[in-house]
Design brief:
This protein is an alpha+beta fold and about 210 residues long. The protein contains seven helices and four strands; from the N terminus they run E-H-E-H-H-H-H-H-E-E-H. Helix 1 crosses helix 7, helix 3 packs antiparallel against helix 4 and helix 4 packs across helix 5. The longest helix has 24 residues.
């Protein structure tokens, strides 16, 4: 008899290094637990669009750049299907985070071509054609956890079968193998606890892309 499988929804912004760390953990989890990840976009630009005046100039510049990659991923989903969301995220994230490449059109094109998508999708980086779908996906994730969080957001089955969503887990470096499995098991455990909301401590390390 095949082992029953669990679906985890994962919302990401391609530019967030912490979401990238957590997403690599979820890929590890798929190897060691009967879990399937559904990749979904959220947007730091959308999340912060009503509070730009409160943010440092450097972060505002980052948010301006954040529109392009997430728009391209959204266009890929809408035009070519859900199966490309995770693949394109991996291609983009590896370039942005592991390789330290610029968030340029050339890098977008290279990532698209790597996963077998047309280079012309890079044009959507400067287009609002699918912003309604982007915002709907973002809203879906944020509505599960509230406005006072960032990316990533994950949603897992709770004790009654309904999804329970969290911001995080925020972790570095990415847990591998059995360490990834233990963190997943712990995530399901806290999700099964009625009224559980938060565990947190101050970050003392930067993302380590090992």
């Amino acid at each position: 008899m095949s082992e029953s499988r669990t679906t985890a929804d994962f919302w990401f912004d391609p530019l967030c290094p912490w979401a990238w760390m957590t997403s690599r953990w979820m890929l590890e989890v798929e190897k060691v637990r009967p879990v399937d990840v559904r990749w979904k976009v959220m947007s730091l630009a959308v999340l912060n669009e009503n509070r730009l005046d409160e943010l440092p100039e450097k972060y505002r510049e980052l948010l301006a750049e954040a529109w392009g990659p997430v728009r391209v991923v959204t266009a890929a989903k809408e035009l070519h299907g859900d199966e490309y969301v995770g693949k394109l995220y991996t291609a983009l994230g590896t370039r942005f985070h592991n390789n330290g490449e610029e968030r340029s059109r050339e890098v977008l094109v290279a990532a698209l071509e790597e996963v077998g998508l047309p280079a012309s999708l890079a044009d959507y980086a400067d287009s609002d054609a699918y912003d309604a779908q982007l915002r709907a996906s973002h809203k879906e994730g944020i509505d599960k956890v509230g406005q006072d969080v960032g990316t990533p957001v994950i949603a897992v089955p709770g004790p009654d079968g309904d999804e329970v969503a969290f911001f995080g887990p925020v972790v570095t470096p990415t847990p591998r193998g059995e360490a990834a499995a233990r963190l997943w098991d712990g995530t399901l455990l806290v999700a099964s606890t009625p009224g559980f909301f938060e565990i947190k401590r101050t970050r003392t390390a930067e993302p380590s892309f090992e």
